[in-house]
Design the sequence.
């Protein structure tokens, strides 16, 4: 097993009286693709958002790059540069075109010269199949194109791990595939990925490990074959059978 | 079908002709009135005649008044916009868990200060503010040992009036900009922060440009409001359109007529401004950049 990139220990988070995460332990290794599945409200998105502190967890540790992100003294911005995030609603900067979306952070955060930042951006945009759209207004793209730009934008920071928060949930069914294909390629290139998804086929095909979350705890985790083929937990079985009924 | 089209066409043409005729008639009779009133020796009895007579006789004053009003509204709004940008940055400061204690205290103070400023300015009439600013400045300069003439030169009615409008609008524009910032989708901030951008970078590069764009119509509104509301500055003797109107009315001993002229002039000013703003916002709404074709 490769070295651990991310180690989450005893993570807890509440919104008011609602306990969303009840002590999560999870380790992600280098080059591993981990899919987190579970019903809506099981806390999987919150878990992902806690990893780069878009939500501040109440207790626990998040070890990344030899530092605990929960420590109030760490340089959060420096660590966030190395954690790419892709959102359900894309969140492209709507005051920028496609290329500027990808070069903004490298130029302002990493102080990379414009020409070099653009070169990197064009390389990543080409890889996601958007070479012809580099000067397009980000607001005018289709959902699938927007999400591919968002992936390229995150990759431009050369992250050590990529977080995907339901990246295809806001997309029309017929364009889900183009985003998943980009993610598959990324996985094949060896990117470490943590993916919250409802795309069971993707989870089964691409992930190295599947984590099933339910009501704020990790109920079960294992290889896709174990989880999809022979789930041990009753809840996992119910969830998956309901899903397979709906989708097959 | 054909008949129907020709019928509407005919109707349209008739309307145009009638309208044009009316316009020409109005123009000619107005020109006639102007020609007649220009040579009169005393204020005529007729309402319109008197309006025209006083406008012609007092035109130097009225033109100066309009020019002053426009300058105050334009400069005042522009200065207020710059100040509001600074103030809104103070206003939106929020202490964060990760800040050190002095930074937390500073942020809290900054936000409090901005809130108090907006609270006080928005809660008091501009006429009172104008008087307070004027006398405050006057007394301040007096303390330095300047003579009244010297003070009037530095702290003129115009300057203190301009300050009043600028400081007053700052409060309103701060809230306008804050609304613009709040209207920017939270996802924009999250995306920027997730890429490692600092709060400041996120604000200046992503959120604020969008917020200003959101706020452009409201900023234009503020300008139009300032055209009208600067009329209260006449209490401290700013030679604006209102003051000019009062002076003309004093000279020619007729009030209703000349105030109607003033109302018309304000109306034309605000109408022209709103046309200009409409044109400007259309222009500023960035044109759709064509998607380059693949090669």
Sequence:
């Amino acid at each position: 097993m490769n070295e651990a990139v991310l180690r989450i220990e005893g993570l807890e988070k509440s919104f008011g009286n609602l306990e969303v995460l009840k002590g999560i332990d999870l380790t992600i290794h280098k080059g591993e693709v981990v899919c987190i599945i579970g019903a809506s409200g099981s806390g999987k998105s919150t878990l992902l958002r806690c990893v780069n502190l878009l939500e501040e967890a109440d207790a626990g540790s998040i070890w990344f790059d030899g530092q605990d992100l929960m420590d109030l003294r760490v340089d959060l911005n420096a660590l966030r540069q190395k954690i790419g995030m892709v959102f359900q609603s894309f969140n492209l900067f709507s005051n920028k075109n496609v290329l500027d979306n990808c070069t903004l952070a490298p130029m302002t955060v990493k102080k990379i010269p414009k020409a070099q930042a653009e070169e990197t951006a064009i390389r990543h945009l080409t890889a996601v199949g958007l070479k012809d759209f580099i000067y397009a207004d980000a607001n005018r793209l289709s959902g699938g194109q927007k999400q591919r730009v968002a992936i390229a934008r995150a990759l431009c920071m050369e992250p050590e791990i990529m977080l995907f928060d339901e990246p295809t949930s806001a997309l029309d069914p017929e364009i889900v595939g183009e985003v998943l294909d980009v993610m598959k390629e990324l996985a094949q290139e060896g990117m470490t990925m943590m993916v919250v998804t409802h795309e069971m086929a993707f989870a089964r095909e691409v992930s190295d490990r599947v984590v099933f979350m339910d009501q704020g705890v990790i109920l079960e985790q294992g290889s896709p074959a174990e989880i999809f083929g022979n789930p041990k937990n009753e809840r996992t079985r119910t969830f998956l059978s309901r899903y397979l009924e709906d989708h097959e | 079908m054909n008949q129907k089209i020709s019928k509407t066409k005919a109707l349209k043409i008739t309307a145009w002709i009638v309208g044009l005729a009316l316009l020409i008639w109005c123009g000619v009779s107005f020109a006639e009135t102007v020609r007649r009133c220009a040579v009169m020796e005393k204020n005529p009895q007729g309402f319109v005649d008197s309006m025209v007579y006083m406008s012609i006789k007092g035109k130097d004053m009225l033109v100066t008044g309009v020019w002053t009003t426009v300058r105050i509204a334009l400069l005042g709004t522009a200065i207020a916009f710059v100040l509001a940008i600074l103030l809104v940055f103070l206003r939106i400061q929020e202490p964060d868990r990760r800040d050190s204690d002095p930074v937390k205290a500073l942020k809290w103070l900054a936000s409090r200060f901005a809130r108090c400023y907006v609270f006080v300015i928005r809660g008091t009439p501009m006429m009172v503010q104008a008087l307070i600013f004027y006398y405050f400045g006057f007394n301040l300069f007096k303390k330095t040992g300047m003579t009244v003439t010297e003070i009037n030169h530095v702290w003129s009615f115009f300057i203190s009036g301009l300050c009043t409008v600028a400081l007053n609008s700052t409060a309103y524009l701060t809230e306008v900009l804050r609304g613009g910032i709040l209207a920017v989708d939270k996802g924009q901030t999250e995306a920027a922060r997730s890429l490692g951008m600092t709060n400041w970078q996120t604000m200046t590069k992503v959120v604020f440009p969008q917020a200003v764009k959101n706020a452009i119509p409201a900023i234009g509104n503020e300008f139009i409001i300032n055209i009208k509301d600067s009329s209260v500055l006449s209490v401290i003797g700013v030679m604006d359109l209102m003051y000019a109107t009062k002076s003309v009315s004093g000279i020619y001993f007729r009030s209703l007529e000349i105030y109607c002229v003033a109302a018309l002039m304000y109306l034309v000013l605000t109408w022209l401004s709103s046309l200009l703003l409409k044109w400007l916002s259309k222009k500023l709404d960035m044109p759709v950049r064509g998607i380059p074709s693949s090669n």
User: Anything to note?
Assistant: Chain B has eleven helices and no strands. Residues 58 and 92 of chain B are 49 Å apart (CA to CA). Residues 286-295 of chain B have pLDDT under 50 and may be disordered.
